Amino acid sequence: MSIWKIAWRSIQQRALSSFLTALSMALGVALIVAVLVIHGVVAQSFNRNAAGYDMIVTAKGGALQAVLNTVFHLSKPVENLPYTYYEEFLNTPEHKGKYAKYVGLAIPYCLGDNYEGYRVVGTTIDMFDKLEYAPGTKYAFSEGRNFKADAYFEGVVGATVARKTGLKVGDTFAPTHGVTEQEDAHKHDTTRSRWSASWRQPVRPTTARCS
Description:
Layout: H1 3-13, H2 15-49, E1 56-57, H3 63-72, H4 83-87, E2 106-108, E3 110-115, E4 118-122, H5 126-129, E5 132-134, E6 137-138, E7 141-144, E8 156-158, H6 159-165, E9 176-177, E10 197-199, E11 208-210
Parallel strand pairs: 1-11, 2-11, 8-10
Antiparallel strand pairs: 3-4, 3-9, 5-6, 7-10
């Protein structure tokens, strides 16, 4: 009798234990594969969101908090820097910053308000006109336009936020102080806060950023 027939008869005689052994092995392999796949997806997502960050200039505080807040919109915002700090990274006819020669593009990125739980970002038009969140790829507007440099109460609304809040081009909204929605939080003047467009991609800057 061959060894294969002996093994098969042994399996038949211990059908239940053999089935449970095979099932446990299959579940173990499936669990390992699932962990590897999930790890790969999560790592790829984090790497994609953090791609292109050459430098983050932020107020004194924890480095981890600065990264989580600025890159992933997690944790509480660190203290915002004065605008004069940001100007030190600019090279304009009116002002040549101390660090301008080391920076190709600097984007201010200020947090502290929210609308219905979604964080409001204070920035400049360069965020959407010049910034490439991936090599050769800038933000695309699904409708409307970028806000104007002198229109301090216009804004750009992301596609996800627009879909979940129902905001449309030209609608007005009142941001609330803080990064989470609270009923007793102070709201800004709704008559002066206006948005003008929406974008498709999530925010991912690629150069120096002042928070």
